[in-house]
Write a sequence for this structure.
């Protein structure tokens, strides 16, 4: 039986912005060949051509097909290892398909909890560099600066401290605030809303609603299902790299929680 899922019909009344067509992502992981020891002994085995590393394939995404339309906010749920983050990276163009493809109308932007900010630089400096990296002009960056600081809601004075002094929650809020400062064709958010208090989550939801109106589509991966239900108009449930269900948030999340107990 093929892993590929049925072709998805296009809604002629809506504008597609992301088309995922029979997507397969395969990781190739190299093991130690079964031997024990430290890095030095492993290197000696390689030099002596003993116990050559064994290659293992992990089929992380298996024949996923769907269409995202302009204005969609799509939640992606699934247990650990189901392929959620891999799917977002593939849509962002960071992982090459082993089979199938991803087609986007515009430039996807991936925002994750590990999004690169310079830990040795201050939050203020990271705002400037992050905005410039997203393509904003110096003038636009200056205009957005106060808005970003206010949205991130850091502790007093922390905007002038190095990022290395920030908690994980503070770093996540600042990353989201920077990314949300411009309009994105396709915005991919991986767990960034999982950290933060209710006040920040409400602001994040309002910002995503704003992005949906002004831009293309938003994809959100979060373990907090309440955030998914409140933010998204559609949910995709991934299970072992395949789409288990795709549809109305309440229906999909109920089926997911019934099946997993989460």
């Amino acid at each position: 039986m093929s892993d590929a899922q049925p072709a998805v019909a296009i809604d002629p009344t809506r504008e597609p912005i992301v088309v995922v067509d029979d997507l397969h992502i395969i990781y190739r992981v190299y093991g130690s060949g079964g031997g024990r020891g430290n890095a030095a002994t492993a290197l000696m085995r390689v030099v002596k051509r003993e116990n050559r590393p064994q290659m293992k394939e992990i089929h992380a995404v298996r024949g996923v097909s769907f269409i995202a339309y302009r204005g969609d906010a799509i939640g992606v749920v699934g247990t650990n290892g189901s392929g959620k983050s891999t799917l977002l990276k593939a849509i962002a163009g960071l992982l090459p398909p082993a089979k199938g493809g991803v087609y986007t109308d515009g430039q996807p932007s991936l925002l994750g909890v590990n999004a690169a900010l310079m830990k040795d630089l201050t939050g203020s400096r990271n705002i400037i560099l992050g905005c410039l990296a997203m393509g904003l002009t110096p003038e636009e960056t200056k205009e957005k600066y106060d808005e970003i600081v206010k949205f991130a809601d850091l502790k007093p004075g922390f905007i002038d401290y190095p990022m290395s002094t920030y908690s994980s929650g503070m770093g996540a809020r600042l990353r989201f605030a920077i990314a949300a400062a411009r309009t994105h064709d396709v915005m991919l958010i991986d767990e960034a809303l999982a950290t933060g208090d209710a006040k920040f989550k409400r602001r994040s939801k309002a910002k995503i609603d704003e992005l949906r109106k002004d831009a293309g589509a938003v994809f959100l991966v979060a373990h907090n299902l309440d955030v998914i239900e409140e933010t998204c108009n559609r949910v995709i449930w991934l299970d072992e790299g395949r789409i288990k269900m795709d549809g109305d948030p309440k229906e999909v999340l109920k089926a997911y929680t019934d099946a997993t107990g989460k």
Summary: The longest strand covers residues 16-30. Residues 1-6 have pLDDT under 50 and may be disordered. Residues 87 and 250 are 22 Å apart (CA to CA). Strands lie at 16-30, 55-69, 73-77, 99-104, 108-112, 186-190, 217-221, 234-239, 242-247.
